[in-house]
Amino acid sequence: MKKQILICCGTGCRANGSMKVAEALNQAVKSHNGNAKVIADIKTTGCHGFCENGPIVKILPDNLVYYKVKPEDSDEIVEKSVLGEEEIGRLMYKDDSGRPVRSQEENPFYAHQYKMVLRDVGEIDPENIGDYLERGGYEALRKAVSMSQDEIIDEVEKSGIRGRGGAGFPAGRKWRTAKRYDNFPKYVACNGDEGDPGAFMDCSILEGNPHSVIEGLAIAAIAVGAKEGFFYIRDEYDLAVKRIKKAIQDAEERGIIGASVMGSEYSLKLSVVRGGGAFVCGESTALMASIEGRVGEPRAKYIRSVQRGLWNQPTVLNNVETLANIPKIILEGGEKFAMTGTKGSTGTKVFSLVGKVKRTGLVEVPMGTTLRHLIYDIGGGIIGNRPFKAVQTGGPSGGCIPESMLDLEVDFDSLASYGAMMGSGGMIVMDDRSCMVEVARYYTNFLCEESCGKCTPCREGLRRMLEILTDICEGRGREGDIELLERLGHTMQEASLCSLGKTAANPVLTTIQYFWEEYEAHIREKRCPAGVCKNLTCFEIEAEKCTGCGMCARGCPVDAISGGKKEVHIIDASKCIACGSCRETCKFDAVRTGARQNVIEGRQAV
Amino acid sequence: MTEFQPDNQIQIEINGRACTCTKGEFLLEAARRNGFYIPTLCHHPGIAEQGCCRVCLAEVVENERSKIVVSCVYPVEKPCKVYTDSERVKEDRKVVLMLLALRAPESTEIQALCRQYGVMDGSRFKPIEGEKCIMCGLCARACASLGTGAISTVLRGTSKKISTPYDEPSDVCVGCLSCTRVCPVDAIPYTEDETKRSIWGREFPLVHCQECGAVIGTREEIALAAGKSGEEVQDLCPECRKKKMSDVMAHTYGTE
């Protein structure tokens, strides 16, 4: 009997020690070599998406999955579950009712997902081209070289696939336009400069299934008539760069790409360019400037890069996830692809679900899945069962969506109609203890640092927005500030040079739209309802709820809490630094927030 | 030069008046050629594709859809209606001018634009004290196009500035003042006396015309020019060179 042990060796699991686990399992298998009944094969794979529970080990064909595996567990795993048929309960995932589950299909995190792009990520060894070929890899490219350029583009157009990088521009239309220009050389490029805080879908695909992206890019090159292509990969994605480079080399050696693509008359040279280290380098024209060796700054895009891109030649730039979808579209047909998702947004989307949810990680669902399904069914709801407040979608230039819109079916158009955006698929969930003004300030500050600084509305507009938001968070907000933010935001949308500037005001504008009262509380009442802005927060203990357990007093870093055993505790507002640790530790929800200034003034009055 | 052929022409309407422009011509040029003045700061005829300051905003209506464009880099490709002073343009320009006035409170050019075109009240904000530069980067691009590259934009976002590498005196600067000449707001400081010029933390000895004594340039600048053109190092000012040349001609052809 033959068994396979898959060990997740994506960046997340590596950070949790998966390479050591792989080594230990190897050792354990070797030392049990005497057993001839079972031949165990060990394979390191890409990311399974459930990184917080890594390292993840999967045993096939039993379909038994273990989480948070340590090197010390390897002997037991080999003895009981590889050579034997026994389960190890402590390493299994417990579902919401506390029952240990065997397979990924039974795990609520995976059960509601629908994997198309991520299907092979976590199943194949990304450094082994044979593994990819075994699963039908490069068959789509073989088919593509036998099709005409227009036939390829027809399929992509039929699929309706829209760019996964953020703007959602139809990929087929982009290819069609690029093909039309009779201006050679043409170029294709893959945007792997994923920079949104908390987002790692492209990283996972590049690391976990690099050949699928290469295959997609090669098909794009053939369709538009390009002979050279570039992978622009975020500089911090060391493993992704390494794997793509190896994959390109392996594909060249096998004659898949290179002087002749799959034995055809097409040729294709692919290379890797490491990102310039700036968030803005993910913007298409800045990315191209960076590939050319110039400073990564966008240019005015009245002439699109399909006409004048790299070195002023027609260039097709697609996102990693878009390209990874292409082989399937070519193999199975665009119509089949279009059956998944919504009318305007076909296929699936990978989201990185992070923040205050119980289960965080990479999830792939059909377009049109509701936020509620994502957050409550897949994510398992809010940590500590606290109330949901908002979900921030689309990265720093996305928007915050409130609870009233939890049943929104997520696709490109629905998000945009609410002032948010799909972006690359980052999804940060916030509970009632997140201050929306502070969230807006955080993103504005991020963009102040990451704007390229070329045009006035973005650079100076962000500077002034940050000035107002900092004032509001620190208790210096004034009447008229909200209107001023809106006015600035409006001009930034209209007059900025690139999409970064045009969308930079989204976090501010959406939080104003949906959480107006929170801004007003900060400005008028000098109160932070979420208890986050320190200058505006004072914590108090509710006598009816306090059990006198003393946990809060023990955790207080400034000894501001006093109270005897089993007596109601009291916070000394003059000592309190509003760090919130008492509120975090209290198991009885007895710590509530009040307005700092009022409390201090009140005390002085007494 | 592109030939001005009839099929290359597009009929557009600017502020209600029918105008003609060449396909692909930048809106700013088309408007100015037809007598409509649009203000600019970072636009320079010798340095293409700037589009940073956003003062030259205009409203373009195409297929009944209206959008704000940056006229200095917006190529007119199809018939459209253009408004250089619509309410929408004015509102956005007032905000842009406020942002610039806060950014560069010392700039008299910006103050003049604010007076002429109106500005949004910026009293809520703290201006950047003593600043004149609007960060358009023309100086760095001029320096680069001369092949010197002594200054460049440094950092990004709100910390962005113009400087020499590591803020140290540049080895390659020749003190030619190209940066100061393209600067739309006169923000680059330099000093000069009879014998030397100081800029970007360095001093450059000045070379005077052998004939009239006028300043020709810095020693480094003249050497660089000679190196590029392959000619001898000049010791005469342009005027005296012309005079010398005509004297030679006159002598040769005997028209004295």
UniProtKB/TrEMBL annotation, chain A:
What residue stretches are annotated with the 4Fe-4S ferredoxin-type domain? 537-566, 567-596
Highest taxon of source: Bacteria
Pfam families from the UniProt entry: 2Fe-2S_thioredx, Complex1_51K, Fer4, NADH_4Fe-4S, SLBB
> GO molecular function terms here?
4 iron, 4 sulfur cluster binding; FMN binding; metal ion binding; NADH dehydrogenase (ubiquinone) activity
Keywords recorded for this protein, A-Z: 4Fe-4S, Iron, Iron-sulfur, Metal-binding
Family designation: Belongs to the complex I 51 kDa subunit family.
What is the protein's given name? NADH-quinone oxidoreductase subunit F
Species of origin: Faecalicatena orotica
TrEMBL record, chain B:
InterPro entries cross-referenced by the UniProt entry: 2Fe-2S_ferredoxin-like_sf (IPR036010), 2Fe-2S_ferredoxin-type (IPR001041), 4Fe4S_Fe-S-bd (IPR017896), 4Fe4S_Fe_S_CS (IPR017900)
Q: 4Fe-4S ferredoxin-type domain: which residues?
A: 123-156, 163-193
| UniProt keyword terms in alphabetical order | Iron, Iron-sulfur, Metal-binding
**What GO annotations for molecular function exist for this entry?**
iron-sulfur cluster binding; metal ion binding
Matching entries from PROSITE patterns are given as: 2FE2S_FER_2, 4FE4S_FER_1, 4FE4S_FER_2
Q: Which residues form the 2Fe-2S ferredoxin-type domain?
A: 8-88
**Protein name (database record):** 4Fe-4S dicluster protein
Species this chain originates from: Faecalicatena orotica
